[in-house]
Predict the 3D structure of the following.
Amino acid sequence: MALLTVPELAGGTYVEGFVVAKVPIEHGWVETANGTIVDPTLYRGEATAYFVGVRYTMEECEAAVRAGKSLPLVYEGNGFGGFRHPGYLAAYQAALAQITQR
């Protein structure tokens, strides 16, 4: 909803993917037009890395809201956990690799 309601985020994208805090967490956030991550749900310093699975434009988000879809959007048509979506699966695998390298 932040992407749709905060004027400063116009031109940004809603992202679904994974964030690594202590473990990989399925997560959603907003990226501004210049690529800055805006994450209203994690405290600063909690996330160590973000892995993009799928980006949605403001128009795609508006259409999803009008259609009554729920988050995460990637689940629709992409099987259990959204893992049939190649980008989402790659984000998950990269997040796992991040924690195994520690």
About this structure: The radius of gyration is 14 Å. Strands lie at 13-20, 24-31, 37-38, 49-56. The helical segments are 2-5, 58-66, 86-100. The chain has a mean pLDDT of 90.
